[in-house]
Amino acid sequence: GADTVLLCGATTSGCVRASAVDLQQSGMPTLVVRDCVGDRAPAQHEASLVDLGGKYVDVVSADEALDYLRGSAWGRV
Description:
Layout lengths: L4 E6 L1 H14 L4 E9 L3 H14 L2 E3 L1 H10 L6
Parallel strand pairs: 1-2, 2-3
Helix pairs in contact: 1-2
């Protein structure tokens, strides 16, 4: 019954990226929560977010993710 994945975790250039690509290839809409992912190197982190946002997912802030949840049926329960 899930219709969207909010993706958080480490490492942005590794596990987060691989998960985002897998989710996109599975047809699952995905939001990567910028405030909730990280990497060892800031430059890799930022480059990964730009690339992911340009090709695979929507990159959003934690506030935007919470707004999304509040607007969803799950968020109104």
